[in-house]
Specification:
Largest sheet: 8 strands, parallel, barrel
Strand content: 15-25%
CATH superfamily of the largest domain: Dihydropteroate synthase-like
Strand order of the largest sheet: 3-6-7-8-9-10-11-12
Oligomer: single chain
Number of helices: 16
Length: about 450
């Protein structure tokens, strides 16, 4: 039976009431998180052993949180609580783990590591990037594998997945960088005992994979019983239909049926020789529960669709996607710079900002508060009006920053022109392009 927040609260130590050591301001706030399966009772550092034993099973999240890596580069996966994002939200973003092939020379492997470190992009104000590196070990002998991972670790700014099925080679590689806490990938029915031993002794997380769900559950239980601290379930992304079906079954069994053997995050190997197919596979599994995605691709054309999918899927549907409603300066502005306004919906604002940057015309952009709605939705929902725009501009003080009184408005709001000229200081209102992509040509034709 699920425990209520009040039941959990009553079991928390009173001599450390509201100490904040759990990361929450009050014990009740922590208890509510435990009740919702977002936190484990053991996250309270002062919980008694009796209470821990009594409540741990009942209050444990249906999916374990798994930490990969150490220090500043560590990442977390798992701890998910819902099947569908609209039920609440997805918590820990899918991670791309680009592969460093065993066939590469040492110099080529180091160059590949540099490229992975530098695979960073900015979209709608957020940094999106490759978050892990997969080091392929199959085909390497033990001492070569150990030497390679140790050298790569000196350059890496991301944690590692060590990919291979030879337990002796894996043991040598793990020992070389055990302090980096790599994810060992993977234990199978053929090597399970040896791989589980490597993971348990090194205290590194371990992925387990098997041909059937029954065997997968047995392997996960065996790893857990042996004391492996972090378990990840492994699937073959190239078998797309079967893997999507099985991953969905696993997730439903963990979240809905509280089946503990499946209560772990998922890693999917989508590496494919065809980059287009690999991108499609990665996007599909990012949307359907893949916590770590192993892929070959490192070109921006392949990475950006996947990273964008992850960014979109893992936004919180309960929180408006907004930027601060204020005046922004793009480039080295001066008194002659253009003034535009748009809404504070982040995608709208960053599209406008990006096109202004592309135009190379330093400009002021006023982001008007529309509660996170785009231009047309804000207009249809009465979240924006000429009076509101005029007030925002007046409050921003932009009139003191420019010598002109020209205002460029979105092309989708031509009706605002006359009223803005009547009620504001901006006596020359120009109707801009309907889409942000038209801003550079608009400036070229209309702004001298």
């Amino acid at each position: 039976m699920a425990l209520t927040g009040m039941q959990i609260y009553k079991s928390l130590p009173k001599d450390h009431a509201n100490c904040g050591d759990c990361g929450f301001p009050t014990c009740m706030a922590f208890a509510m998180q435990v009740a919702s399966k977002s936190k484990a009772i053991t996250d309270c550092p002062h919980i008694s052993e009796d209470a821990k034993g009594e409540l741990s099973d009942a209050s444990a999240p249906p999916m374990k949180l798994v930490k990969i890596g150490a220090g500043d580069v560590a990442v977390e996966i798992g701890a998910e609580t819902v099947m569908f994002r609209h039920e609440e939200k997805f918590r820990n973003k899918s991670l791309l783990a680009t592969k460093i092939a065993a066939s590469l020379s040492d110099d080529e492997a180091m160059q590949r590591m540099d490229a992975i470190n530098g695979a960073v992009f900015v979209r709608v104000g957020d940094e999106i990037k490759v978050r892990m590196a997969t080091i392929e070990l199959d085909g390497l002998v033990a001492d070569v594998a150990a030497s390679r991972v140790k050298a790569l670790a000196t350059k890496s700014t991301v944690p590692f997945v060590l990919l291979g099925e030879d337990a002796a080679v894996m043991d040598a590689a793990v020992k070389a960088i055990a302090d980096k806490k790599p994810l060992i990938c993977k234990a199978t029915p053929g090597n399970a005992d040896a791989m589980i031993k490597v993971a348990a002794e090194s205290k590194c997380p371990l992925s387990v994979g098997a041909p059937t769900l029954e065997e997968l559950a047995d392997l996960a239980k065996a790893a857990s019983d042996a004391g492996v601290e972090g378990i990840v379930l492994s699937f073959d992304g190239k078998d797309m239909a079967n893997s999507l079906r099985n991953i969905t079954i696993v997730r439903r069994a963990a979240l809905k049926k509280k089946f503990r053997a499946f209560g772990y995050p998922v890693i999917v190997d989508v590496a494919h020789d065809d980059s287009m197919k690999e991108t499609v596979l990665a996007c599909s599994f990012a949307a359907k529960y893949g916590a770590v995605l192993i892929m070959n691709g490192l070109d921006g054309a392949e990475l950006l669709p996947v990273l964008t999918t992850i960014q979109n899927v893992y936004t919180d549907p309960q929180v408006p996607n907004t930027v601060d409603a204020k005046l922004y300066e793009v480039g080295d502005v001066n008194e002659n710079s253009p003034l535009l306004f748009t809404t504070n919906f982040s995608l709208t604002y960053f599209c406008v900002e990006g096109e202004v940057e592309r135009s190379k015309v330093p400009s002021y952009i006023m982001a008007v508060d529309t509660e996170g709605l785009g231009v047309l939705n804000a207009y249809a929902g009465d979240k924006i009006s000429p009076a509101q725009v005029a007030k925002s501009l007046a409050d921003s003080g932009v009139a003191d920053k420019v010598s002109h009184r020209k205002l460029i408005i979105p092309g989708l709001l031509p009706a605002f022109r006359a009223e803005l000229e009547d009620i504001s200081d901006w006596k020359e209102v120009m109707i801009g392009p309907e889409t942000a992509s038209g801003i550079p040509s608009f400036f070229k034709e209309n702004w001298k």
